[in-house]
Amino acid sequence: MIVPYIILTVATAVEILSLTWLGTQISVLNTISLTMFTLLLGVINGRSYGEEWYGKMQWHLKSGTLPSDEVVNGAVMNVGSKLLLMPGLVTDVMGFLIVLPQTRFIAKNIALNLFKKKLSRREQWFFFQN
To answer: How big, in percent rounded to 5, are the helix, strand and coil portions of the chain?
Structure first.
């Protein structure tokens, strides 16, 4: 299966090109500082929304019930914090869009649709089997 490798290669190339472009626009030092700042935000946000939210999503999936808004919010915020931890302009923008309350509903709707599909297929694992 070569598709994941192609996606990983393209995503890496896009991140490198976007960081290179940003470095030419605001200087290399400012680009590194911005990357470190988003890493710090990701760490702070990740401590608030830890792995327990994935466990709660997994429990709802195994029990066949739709998760509450709080559980979906926590799981989506955890994904946003992980995106902020990754160095790159595209992942940081995606992470900020998830972390900001005004745009978080998009990621929550995507997560709920994914959850509903898994419930309809009677799958018991949200992402990976333990």
So the answer is: 80, 0, 20
Q: What are the residue boundaries of the structural domains of the chain, listed by start?
A: 3-120
The answer to whether residues 107 and 97 touch, using CB atoms and an 8 Å cutoff, is yes
At 44 the three-state DSSP class reads helix
Q: Check: pTM over 0.70? Answer yes or no.
A: yes
Tokens standing for 8? 């990983």
Alpha carbon distance 64, 5 (integer Å): 33
CA–CA dist 69, 107 (Å, integer): 12
Q: What is the pLDDT of residues 54-96, one digit of tens each?
A: 778 878 878 888 888 888 888 899 889 999 999 999 999 999 9
